[in-house]
């Protein structure tokens, strides 16, 4: 399973680099969203926001590892509950419930950071050439008039 994920990541990264080589000032927002959905930080890499990509990848890796750890601990305490007396069983049940609550919180944070990453990639792709477009628009102030100039 992990080999398939690594191969998918390498394939998407290679496709992204090939796309970036052909594009100069245009980014496709839907493609950025797709990359960000499939691979954490993929949309940020597509938009040349490498620091954001590193933050997203690190945060997602931390949250996924925390979720795996919390799930393992919850299963561990669930297994310990079998064959114990009532006083110890209550302690194990409480620990298992605490780890399950942490796991739910991890899932929520994974979803939230993924949504924000996708939204960020979409907005960054839209605003990718904002500076160049901004330089095309000029406001000129004259005597009692305002002139808007746009260069194509």
Question: What are the SSEs and their pairings?
Answer:
Blueprint: H1 2-22, H2 29-38, H3 42-46, H4 50-81, H5 86-126, H6 130-134, E1 137-142, E2 145-150
Helix pairs in contact: 2-5, 4-5
Short synopsis of the structure:
The chain is mainly α. The chain has helices spanning 2-22, 29-38, 42-46, 50-81, 86-126, 130-134; strands at residues 137-142, 145-150.
| Low-confidence residue ranges | none
Helix/strand order: HHHHHHEE
Shape: elongated
Q: Which sheet architecture does the biggest sheet show?
A: 2 strands, antiparallel
Question: SS-based structural class?
Answer: mainly alpha
Number of domains: 1
Give the neighbour order of strands across the main sheet.
1-2
Rg for CA atoms? 24 Å
| Count of beta strands | 2
Please, what is the average pLDDT?
79
Q: Could you give the distance between the termini?
A: 50 Å
How many DSSP H or I helices? Answer: 6
Folded structure, characterized:
- The chain has 152 residues and is mainly α.
- It has one domain.
- Helix content is 75%, strand content 8%.
- It is built from six helices and two strands.
- It has a two-stranded antiparallel sheet with strand order 1-2.
- A hairpin with a 2-residue loop joins strand 1 (137-142) and strand 2.
- Helix 2 (29-38) packs antiparallel against helix 5 (86-126).
- The mean pLDDT is 79.
């Amino acid at each position: 399973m992990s080999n398939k994920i690594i191969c998918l990541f390498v394939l998407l990264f290679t496709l992204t680099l090939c796309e970036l080589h052909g594009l100069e000032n245009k980014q496709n927002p839907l493609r950025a969203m797709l990359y960000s959905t499939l691979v954490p930080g993929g949309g940020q890499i597509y938009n040349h926001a490498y620091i954001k990509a590193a933050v997203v990848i690190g945060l997602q890796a931390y949250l996924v590892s925390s979720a795996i750890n919390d799930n393992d601990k919850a299963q561990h305490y669930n297994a310990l509950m079998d064959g114990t007396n009532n006083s110890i069983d209550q302690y194990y049940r409480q620990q298992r419930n605490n780890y399950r609550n942490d796991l739910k919180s991890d899932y929520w944070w994974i979803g939230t950071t993924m949504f924000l990453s996708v939204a960020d990639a979409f907005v960054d792709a839209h605003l990718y050439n904002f500076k160049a477009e901004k330089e095309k628009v000029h406001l000129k102030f004259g005597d009692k008039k305002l002139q808007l100039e746009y260069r194509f």
